[in-house]
Design brief:
Layout: E1 6-9, E2 15-18, E3 25-31, E4 34-37, H1 51-61, E5 71-75, E6 78-81, H2 82-91, H3 93-96, H4 103-122, H5 128-142, H6 146-155, H7 160-180, H8 189-198, E7 204-205, E8 208-217, H9 224-242, H10 247-254, E9 265-270, H11 276-283, E10 294-296, E11 299-309, E12 312-313, H12 316-347, E13 350-352
């Protein structure tokens, strides 16, 4: 029986439309009270029915009405729908990490809407060249060309235009947050020092050594006579160093390791990080001394101890910038939450059902 096309709000805040001739209920979505069909683009015939007849139509068709959307919240009176949430979860990293329909996902979607409304209200402007410069930076950092970027976006279901829109919105948010929050967050030297003293164990260090070496490689099938000859060569080079030859120059000339071109430098090692025979040799040396030939699975080494540090804590001067950035990030996050909940959410009426 034809029942026309009527939109009816059900108890969960959703809208169901019943189309003439189809007898099925279809969920409607829309913004600002204007709703359109998600699943049927045909223009239905419209009829005016008495209330009783409409109720009969609802009884006949309600068993087959499928709910595919509902209103979850409103922002300044505009609905936030289940369909929007599902779409948001498909493309937003934060939402992907949450379970479908979770409160975290909904909060992230509402936050995006509120911040974007604030962007519009205060008139944050991002130029086209700023968007292109940002995208060019993405390509350079990932070492990809424009076609490769398009392929990566297509794999995520995004067109280049949709990506540009996302970039523009992200840059607008960054500008807004920088203006509203960053200038109000400050970390003093006293706060950095206090944090350092309270977390001194986080910056403790074990004994470590800085070494360089000259490697005389031993192939797997090296005979004992060859080992003797190569060891003698290493002793000869050490003798020249002891008499005053520059270790770095000798490394460049004789070392069969890639580090030779850098003067044999291997960097810093804590206990247990170096090949054991080399570590044992290094720990017996004074800074500046060169070991006797040391054999490892790689070959014969001459080991030079370049520097040594005992166990202790890294000095404040070495870690102050790291601590400052950590405290700044924490303060920024706290200020953002305060700005969001105490300022934006009150300026933009948010209601969650």
């Amino acid at each position: 029986m034809p029942c026309g096309s009527d939109a009816v709000r059900v108890s969960d805040g959703s809208m169901i439309t019943f189309h003439s001739g189809t007898g099925d209920g279809r969920r409607e979505t829309g913004v600002g009270g204007q709703y359109r069909s998600m699943s049927d683009t045909r223009r239905p015939a419209h009829y005016v029915f008495p209330t009783g007849l409409l109720a009969l139509c609802l009884l006949v068709t309600s068993a087959r009405a499928e709910i595919i959307d509902k209103i979850l919240a409103t922002v300044d009176g505009d609905p936030v729908t289940l369909y929007e949430l599902h779409q948001f979860q498909q493309k937003d990293i934060r939402a992907r990490q949450s379970s479908p329909g979770s409160e975290d996902s909904l909060k992230a979607l509402i936050t995006d809407k509120v911040v974007q409304r604030e962007v519009t209200d205060v008139g944050v402007i991002v130029r086209d060249e700023d968007v292109e410069r940002y995208i060019e930076g993405i390509r350079e950092r990932n070492k990809i060309n424009e076609e490769q970027l398009k392929e990566a976006l297509n794999a995520q279901g995004l067109t280049m235009e949709a990506y540009r829109k996302q970039v523009r919105e992200d840059l607008q948010r960054q500008q807004l947050i920088a203006r509203e929050i960053r200038g109000k967050v400050n970390v003093t030297p006293e706060e950095v020092e206090r944090y350092y003293k309270e977390h001194i164990s986080d910056y403790s260090t074990s004994e470590r050594v800085q070494v360089a070496h000259i490697l005389f490689a031993l192939p797997a099938d090296t005979s004992s006579d060859q080992v003797v000859a190569i060891t003698a060569k290493a002793e000869e080079v050490r003798g020249r160093i002891v008499k005053g030859a520059d270790f770095a120059e000798m490394a460049k000339q004789y070392s069969e390791d890639r580090s030779g071109q850098e003067g044999g430098s291997l960097g810093w090692f804590a206990k247990g990080e170096m090949l054991e025979p080399m570590e044992q040799a290094a720990l017996k040396l004074k800074v500046g001394e060169v070991s006797q030939p040391v054999r490892t699975r790689l070959g014969i080494h001459l080991v030079k101890l370049e520097a040594k540090e005992g166990a202790g804590a890294k000095p404040l001067t070495e870690v102050s910038e790291q601590i400052k950035q950590q405290l700044y990030s924490e303060a920024l996050e706290g200020r953002f939450e305060k700005w969001l909940t105490e300022d934006l959410y009150k300026r933009h009426h948010v209601e969650i059902f």
